[in-house]
Amino acid sequence: MTIESNNKMVYDHILVRYGELSTKGKNKKDFIRRLHQNMKNALRNYPALEFERTHDRMYILLNGVDPDEIAPIISRIFGISSFSYALKVNSEIEDIIAAAYHSASQSGAKTFKVEARRHYKLFGMISDEINRAVATEILKNTEMKVDVHHPELRIMIEVRQFETYIMTNKLLGAGGYPVGVGGKSMVMLSGGIDSPVAAYLMMKRGITVECIHYASPPYTSPRAQQKVVDLAKILAAYQGHIRIHVIPFTELQLAIYKHADESYCITLMRRMMYRIAERLAQRQNCLAIVNGESIGQVASQTLESMNVINETVTMPVIRPVVTMDKLEIIALSEKIGTYETSIQPFEDCCTIFTPKNPVTHPVSRKAAAFEQKFDYDALIEDCLNKIEIIDVYPNQKNNTEEDLF
């Protein structure tokens, strides 16, 4: 038991609870192994930390590291339901009572509740007896009162065979599955509000993401591309590392506007983007294309448009925000920290080349007819041959950090 002489509680562990991993049956071990590796990667700057995993918990031995310093990092790691600062003591009732009493006496709370859980069923007291023993000590030696419904302080006790963990807080984790357990996808990252949210939602389901961005210099500025890099840096906090493939799209866009009716230009641009994304995804061993399309939000996102655009690829296209309205997407972008960057006024290639009256109910036959007027396949290959690759990391100052995942 680690209690300083000045009566300040010193937590020596962080106890991590799994989220949906508990439902994974025979695959659970693989998911826990991936979460363990992701935790170590995310906390790589704290070499003093030690990790231990079990079938239902993970324990981080702090070795003097301030838990407040690493809590924000842990809160962004997918696969974690919640976590708590913990004090590890021997599984002896005297040690448990002493640590729990000290936690209560230093809390400043007026009401409390004890919640004991016996993972080791052969412990000499049942959970209710532990609760009563701890509560009696606190009631005898403090002015605190028991409140089982709305306590100011919850003292959580997890009893195992050789050690017991005393906790007084529960912090929410990011939920979902550990990134990397579900394969890899190619996210069309535009720099707007929607696509970063789509990338976040994919990572939450355990999917590693790479990103593709279409740039049209000199019509789009370097600041527009930098905005995408900045968004990827924010998202990288949830994954550890993100690779961006920047596609030089200018020549292909100009060819579309030269050979097609203006009303069909956005439809054709999206068809070309899908073709490029699929070829790149196959090259990078990605299993799906992901974008931030939401039904009815713009002309290219009606069901008719999606159908005509989608027919150019055979790979699955996933749209995580497809049924969300704009306010819901904005709220989530604010939560994950991308909103302020997304609204910076640097236009992407779709915005700059938007026609005055884009078709909302395109016909596949007409789109194909326009495409037959120029050699788009050669232009696509040229785009792929001129890709710029940018690797980004959380809070990155340069691109020399080693790949994490």
Automatic annotation (TrEMBL):
Enzyme class name: transferase
Recorded superkingdom: Bacteria
Alphabetized SMART domains for the sequence: THUMP
Pathway the protein takes part in: Cofactor biosynthesis; thiamine diphosphate biosynthesis
UniProt-annotated location(s): Cytoplasm
Example GO biological process: thiamine biosynthetic process
CDD domains xrefs: PPase_ThiI, THUMP_ThiI
Swiss-Prot/TrEMBL catalytic activity: [ThiI sulfur-carrier protein]-S-sulfanyl-L-cysteine + a uridine in tRNA + 2 reduced [2Fe-2S]-[ferredoxin] + ATP + H(+) = [ThiI sulfur-carrier protein]-L-cysteine + a 4-thiouridine in tRNA + 2 oxidized [2Fe-2S]-[ferredoxin] + AMP + diphosphate; [ThiS sulfur-carrier protein]-C-terminal Gly-Gly-AMP + S-sulfanyl-L-cysteinyl-[cysteine desulfurase] + AH2 = [ThiS sulfur-carrier protein]-C-terminal-Gly-aminoethanethioate + L-cysteinyl-[cysteine desulfurase] + A + AMP + 2 H(+)
Residues holding ATP: M188, L189, H213, Y214, R270, G292, Q301
Domain called THUMP: residue spans: 68-170
Ranges annotated as spanning the membrane: none
Keywords of this entry: ATP-binding, Cytoplasm, Nucleotide-binding, RNA-binding, Thiamine biosynthesis, Transferase, tRNA-binding
InterPro entries: Rossmann-like_a/b/a_fold, ThiI_AANH, ThiI_fer, ThiI_N, THUMP_dom, THUMP_ThiI, tRNA_STrfase, tRNA_sulfurtransferase_ThiI
Keyword Iron-sulfur: no
EC annotation from Swiss-Prot or TrEMBL: 2.8.1.4
GO-annotated molecular function: ATP binding; CCA tRNA nucleotidyltransferase activity; tRNA binding; tRNA-uracil-4 sulfurtransferase activity
Free-text function comment from the UniProt entry: Catalyzes the ATP-dependent transfer of a sulfur to tRNA to produce 4-thiouridine in position 8 of tRNAs, which functions as a near-UV photosensor. Also catalyzes the transfer of sulfur to the sulfur carrier protein ThiS, forming ThiS-thiocarboxylate. This is a step in the synthesis of thiazole, in the thiamine biosynthesis pathway. The sulfur is donated as persulfide by IscS.
HAMAP family, sorted: ThiI
Alphabetical list of PANTHER family matching this protein: TRNA SULFURTRANSFERASE (PTHR43209:SF1)
Identification of the protein by name: Probable tRNA sulfurtransferase
Lineage: Bacteria, Bacillati, Bacillota, Erysipelotrichia, Erysipelotrichales
Gene field: thiI
